[in-house]
Automatic annotation (TrEMBL):
UniProt subcellular location: Membrane
UniProt keyword Cytoplasm, yes or no: no
Molecular-function annotations in GO: potassium channel activity; proton channel activity
InterPro entries linked: TMEM175-like
Sections of the chain in a coiled coil: none
Protein name according to UniProt: DUF1211 domain-containing protein
Transmembrane annotation, as ranges: 20-37, 57-73, 93-113, 125-144, 174-205
Catalytic function, reaction form: K(+)(in) = K(+)(out)
Membrane topology type: Multi-pass membrane protein
Family: Belongs to the TMEM175 family.
One GO CC term, this protein: membrane
Species assigned in the record: Streptomyces argyrophylli
Key words, A-Z: Ion channel, Ion transport, Membrane, Potassium, Potassium channel, Potassium transport, Transmembrane, Transmembrane helix, Transport
Length: 214
């Protein structure tokens, strides 16, 4: 029996996209852990050296939390996505592109804060982190926008509020990370890092939608 000739970009199931995404997210978390290292120290100075690299711990906490809630929300999204089209693949790849790069600004922030927590380099570093984190949020905006344009990609029993909630959460995150970056540049870089640590909690708490409308 001859195969039907495919024309254009064909829709596909989510299996390969989910497997590829899980692999990228796993690597992203692993890269974050590589930023934690035994600090150089003199004999008897290990305790002080470990304490001195506190920015690396905060950066790891903030970024691990962010990637973790991305994985959680990504899983929840693909419970509801039935098939993929080109636009949804593009949005998903943008999300993975930005997530895979998160270890870079995490390391930059840790190094800059350790050198001078209130210096100009630290301010540039938190702005870099905030910018990439905001891009990650905007990739979710694109993801949900495509689902809003193509509701047939979703399972028939998906919640009526799912896409709207997802878009609101994504825009809120982009604005929050942007505001945190401004806080770090204009006021104090450690304050921005504190916001970076807390924001993933918002995404975790709202992963099942906003509590008032569940």
């Amino acid at each position: 029996m001859s195969r039907t000739r495919l024309r254009g970009f064909s829709r596909s199931d989510t299996t390969r996209a989910e497997a590829f995404s899980d692999g990228v997210l796993a690597i992203a978390v692993t890269l974050l852990a590589l930023g934690l290292a035994d600090p150089p120290h003199r004999p008897g100075g290990l305790g002080h050296a470990l304490l001195a690299q506190w920015p690396a711990y905060l950066g790891y906490l903030a970024s691990f939390g962010y990637v973790s809630v991305i994985w959680l929300n990504h899983h929840q999204a693909f419970v509801r996505v039935r098939v993929m089209d080109r636009g949804l693949h593009a949005a998903n790849l943008l999300l993975l592109f930005s997530t895979a790069a998160l270890s870079f600004p995490t390391a930059v922030v840790a190094d800059a804060l350790q050198a001078d927590p209130d210096g100009s380099d630290a301010r540039v570093a938190v702005a870099l982190y905030a910018g990439l984190a905001a891009v990650m949020c905007l990739s979710w905006v694109a993801f949900y926008h495509q689902l809003a344009r193509r509701p047939e990609l979703l399972t028939p029993d998906v919640e009526s509020t799912y896409v709207r909630h997802g878009r609101l959460r994504s825009w809120a995150g982009a604005l929050a990370y942007g505001a945190a970056g401004l806080l770090g540049v204009l006021v104090a870089p450690p304050a921005a890092v504190a916001v970076f640590v807390v924001l993933p909690v918002f995404y975790f708490v709202t992963s099942d939608g906003f509590p008032a409308e569940r």
